[in-house]
Amino acid sequence: MKIAIDGPAGAGKSTISKSVAKMLNYIYIDTGAMYRSVGLAAIKAGLDTRSETELQRIINNISIEIKNDEHGQKFFLNGKDVTKEIRKPEVSIAASNVATIPSVRLKLVDIQRKLAEKSSVVMDGRDIGTYVLPNAELKIFLTADVDERARRRYKELIEKKAETNFESVREEILFRDKNDSERDFAPLKQADDAVLLDTTNMSIDEVINKILSLVEEKCNDII
Predict the structure, then answer these.
(1) Is 15 annotated as a binding residue?
(2) CA angle, corner 65, sides to 32 and 207, nearest 5?
(3) Alpha carbon distance, N-terminus to C-terminus of the chain
(4) How far is the CA of 190 from the CAs of 127, 166, 196, in angstroms?
C-alpha cells in the first residue's frame, strides 16, 4: 500500500508521516530531505540553486542514500552523513529553489518511485499524490494556518538550538509556499482525490489517529 502525504512547509508532514509509518510498519520516505540534500550539494559547489544549467553539472553524479537505524533515518550525500546539516535554514531555501528545476525533480522522482515499488510506504512531499505516486491508495493533503506552521517550525529550530527568530521563519515559509505552488513543473497542490486535513487546531495524536482511521477504511474498501 502507498500513502501519499502532501502539503506546504511546516504543516507537520514529516512528524506525522514518520509516526504513521512506524505504527503501520511501513517504510517512511522523506522526499523533502532528498531535495535538501541536492540543495546542500549545490551550496557546497558554489552553484546558483535556481540555475538548471549549473545544477546539471552535479545532479547526474549525486548519490543520495537513506539508511534506517535505532535513532531513525539518516541521509547520506555522496557517502557523507548530512542528516543534521540539511536542516539548516539556508538549506531549506536552497531545497525549495532546486525543487523548481525539472532535471532535479526527474532524477529524484525516479529514485522515489523505485523505493515505493519495493514495499508499503508512507511518502511525504509537495507533489506525491499528484505526480510521484498518482495511483497511491490513500492521498492526504496536510495543511495549517501560516502562523501556526511558523510557530511549529520556530519551536523545532529553537529546540535544536538554531539561531533564528519567528519573523524570519515565517518569511521563509511564505517564500517556500510561493515557490512551491508557482513552479511550472509538478507544483504544490491538492490532488483531486486527496483528503484535506487542516491541522491548525489539532494535536499530533489527533492527526495520526485520523490518518490511521483513513487507512483502515481504505483497507476495508480494498478487501
Answers:
(1) yes
(2) 35
(3) 12
(4) 8, 27, 8
Question: Domain coordinates of the chain in residue numbers?
Answer: 2-222
β pairing state of 72-77 and 80-81 = antiparallel
223 pLDDT exceeds 60?
no
Instruction: Please tell me whether 11 is known to bind a ligand.
Output: yes
Cα–Cα distance, 42 to 211 (Å, whole number): 36
Is 9 labelled a binding residue? yes
The annotation status of 4 as a binding-site residue, yes or no, is no
Question: At the topology level of CATH, where does 2-222 sit?
Answer: Rossmann fold (3.40.50)
Residue range 151-193, pLDDT digits in tens: 999 998 899 888 889 999 999 999 989 988 998 888 999 999 9
The annotation status of 125 as a binding-site residue, yes or no, is no
Q: Model-level pTM?
A: 0.84
Write the CB contacts of 97 (distance below 8 Å, at least 6 apart in sequence): 39, 49, 50, 179
Q: How far apart are CA 68 and CA 210, in angstroms?
A: 26
186 is in an annotated binding site: no
Residue 14 in contact with residue 199, Cβ under 8 Å?
no
